[in-house]
Amino acid sequence: MGTLNFKFAIVSDLHIALPHTIWNHPKRFHLVEVGIPALELILERLSGLDLDFLLLPGDLTQHGEPENHAWLGKRLAQLPYPTYTIPGNHDVPSLLANDTSIAWADFPHYYHHCGYENPEKLYYTREILPGVRLIALNSNQFDEAGKQQGCLDEEQFGWLETVLAEAEEELLLVMVHHNVIEHVPGQSRSPMGRRYMLDNAPRLLSMLRSARVQLVFTGHLHAQDIAYDRGIYDITTGSLVSYPHPYRVLEFRTDSGGQSWLQIESGRVESLPDWPELNQVSREWMGDRSHPFMMRLLTEAPLNLSLEEAEPLVPSLRYFWANIANGDAQFEFPHFPPTARRFIESFSATDGEGNLAAIDNHVTLKLSRQPSRIKSKI
C-alpha cells in the first residue's frame, strides 16, 4: 500500500430542501429549513483545508424531489475537490417516480460527476487517489410489495466479491447509508434501532473482514458515533439538519514504518444568519418531540416497562437522544429503578474496555498493519 497521507471531509444526511419544496408535519424532527445555508457554511469552512475529497453518505434530499436532487448535483459540481455520493432512503423512497420523488433508478443521473460513471447501477467503486479505493454501496432495495428495505441485493454482493478479490495494494474505504455495526445497545434487535441497520450486515462484515477492510462510513442514524467490532470501524456522522448539525474532517496518515492512523475532528454549525441560536433551538426542537420516542424506548423490548412505570421517567429523558446525537454522551440517572438505570446508562460512550470515554468526535484511530493482499476469491 505504501505511504499514504490525505485529508477528506464527511457531511451526512443533508436532507436538502429548496424553500418551496418544504413540507411541514407536527412530528417532523428535521430542521430542513437550515439545510442549504448550513451546507454553504460548511463548504466555506472546508474551502481552506486543501481537501482531497468529500463523502456524502446518503439522504441528500428531503424526500427525493427532482428539484432538490438537481440543485445539489449542480452545487457539488462547482466544488474544487471530488465529491462522492450514495443514495439514502430519503433519496429514493419509491421504486418508480411519482408526483414528488424521482425513481430509484434515476439517482445516478443526478450525480454522474460524484462517482456514478455508470448510470445503470446505484453502486460503484473508484480509485479516488493513488493507492486508495472507494467502494460505494447502495443499501436501498424494495420487496415484491414495493416496500423499501435496508439491505444489499445478491447482484451487489456478487459485484462486491469481485471488487474485493481484485483489490491488491490499495487502502479500501467503504461507504454505505445504513449502519453495519451497532451504535447503540441492542440496535440490531430493537424494533426502534434495527431500521437503521443494514439487514444483511453480518454477511457484509464477513466479506470486509476477509478483505481486511477497516473503515466504513455510514449515516442514517443522525448521531455522531464511532463503533468498532473485530477489526472494523463504522464511523457514522450526524445529520446536517438535526442537532448538533455536525460534519467531520478526517486525515489519514502513514509513518515511515508503515503504521497508519486516522485522525478525526468534528465541527458544528452553531449559528446561521437567520438562526443565530441554531444549536439551542434545534436541541429544544428535538426535546419537544422526544416524549413518544422515549415512551417507546422504555416500553418496548428489552425493558418492557408498563406505561405507568415509564411515564414518570420520561421527563428526565427530554435530551436523551440529543445527547446521543451530539456524541460522547455520559449518562447518570441514580433516581431511576435499577433495571431502567442500567439500561439507560449503557448508552454512554465507552472505549473498547467498557470505560467511559470521549470517542465519537475528536479521536485518532490507530489502524492495524495490513499484510499485502493476494488476488483470490473470498
From TrEMBL:
Chain segments annotated as coiled-coil in the UniProt record: none
Keywords for this protein: Hydrolase, Iron, Metal-binding
Molecular function terms from GO: hydrolase activity; metal ion binding
Ranges of residues in domain Calcineurin-like phosphoesterase: 6-223
Pfam family, one: Metallophos
Protein origin, superkingdom: Bacteria
PANTHER family in UniProt: CYCLIC NUCLEOTIDE PHOSPHODIESTERASE CBUA0032-RELATED, PHOSPHOHYDROLASE
Family named by the database record: Belongs to the cyclic nucleotide phosphodiesterase class-III family.
The name this protein goes by in its record: Metallophosphoesterase
Organism: Zarconia navalis LEGE 11467
Organism classification: Bacteria, Bacillati, Cyanobacteriota, Cyanophyceae, Oscillatoriophycideae
